[in-house]
Amino acid sequence: MLSLPSTQRTSANTDIPEEAKAPSRALPDQAAAVIDSGAIAPGRTTAFTPVRLAAVARSRIESLFDAAGIRIDGCAPTDMRVRDSRVYSWLSARGLRGLGEAYMNGWWEAADLDGLLQRVLQIHGDRDARGIDEAALFIHSRLARLAGPPSPSPMGTHDEPPGPELLRSILGEHMVSSCGYWRDAYNLAGAQEARFDLVCRKLGLEPGMRVLDIGCGGGEALVFAAINYGVSGVGITPSQEEAERARVRCAGLPIEIRVQDYVRDYRLLDGRFDRSWTLGMFERVGAKNHRSYFQAMRSSLAPDALMLLQSIGSNRSVNRLEPWMEKYVQPGSLIPTAMQVDEAHAGLFVMEDWQNFGADYDRTLMAWRANLERGWPVLREKYDDRFYRMWRFYLSAAAATFRCRRNQLWQIVFSTNGLPHGYSSVR
Fold it and tell me: Can you give the pTM of this predicted structure?
């Protein structure tokens, strides 16, 4: 499940960092950024002037973008059109995080935003553009990911979780915030329903089975399974608001919704379940709790049970999310690698099947962005342009990571003791 930015109404003035609002006072820090980047040798700093600094910062960014086939103020859809010259120093100081912040501030545009970001990611430009403030983010993330659970979104001290109106506008009628399955689907609603059916078929659901949904959200997967496969179940969510919405959605069905911290309290689950699924929650568990999660699932399942884990997956081990996502979306979350999943379940489960349909997340995210753009004329009565640009950058950047295959979307089927006759893969 992708994390969702805060719904706090941002201000075009108060949310721009002080050094951005007053660039003349920020020149020493910006100069240090350019020096640390290696663009100018420390011994030559006496010649710094605002004009010289801007030229050096622009040269560095142009060189980086040139390698990605991106031109500054070019004519191609993936070219960057600069609206404010502060963007160069901001990117030099803050790397990819600065790219997102500058976009939020309205300092640059691109006709094909996700295409531009895809080009940057494909040449690993986000790694080459590391800014001077990333050491603090690294330390923060290193501690947070080990401790789990993730911290609240840092968009402000009075942030609220995304409200139903906003989520419905972006995610669709049933507000499902995870990847759809587009193999035979023609729209977002069909892709989400196809994913629920894929989960049910992979787990071989039959009438009378009891299922467990960890991180159930609004209960949509449980509703689908109860209506179409005749099962009963329990859904776990840490959100009182989500639980209330899920109870309304599940009314009249044999489904119980519990408010429970699925990082700290899933170890307290009672009863035995025939099947279990976790759809888009594992990224929030924290590396320290991966093993505990699998231990809790093992103790909650019957001896012949199956479990399905759906999670975003990373190609390489990292200490934190991308800097912009780390600051604005979900600090402390960690996208697991295949090795981390393998180590966490070793000796507890038998891995029966592993499917990767990460390319479908690109299509899902672009459908969400199209919904945002269609719904903005109504949403703008409540939220400002910087808020809109934050969401548009978020959805575009996330889509780019899947399009260039940096991130994956896994569905993994586990059995408690191994199936005597093996498992036949379902697609």
Answer: 0.83
Q: How far apart are CA 120 and CA 91, in angstroms?
A: 13
Cα angle value 32/83/97 (rounded, 5°): 45
CA of residue 409 relative to chain centroid, distance: 11
Selection from 270, 280, 166, 169 nearest residue 220 by Cα: 280
- Quick: pLDDT tens for 185-231: 999 999 999 999 999 999 999 999 999 999 999 999 999 999 999 99
The arithmetic mean of pLDDT across residues 255-282, rounded, is: 82
Asked if residues 221 and 197 have their Cβ atoms less than 8 Å apart, the reply is no
Tell me whether strands 301-314 and 273-279 are parallel, antiparallel or unpaired. Answer: parallel
Which pairing describes strands 210-214 and 232-237: parallel, antiparallel, or unpaired?
parallel
pLDDT band at 134; cut points 50, 70, 90: very low
- Cβ proximity of 349 and 418 under 8 Å: no
| Cα–Cα dist 191/130, whole Å | 37
Q: How many angstroms separate the CA atoms of 261 and 154, rounded?
A: 20
* Domains of the chain and CATH, by start: 18-147 (no CATH), 164-415 (3.40.50.150)
End-to-end CA distance of the chain: 20
Which segments within 251-400 are labelled E, that is strand? 255-259, 273-279, 301-314, 350-356
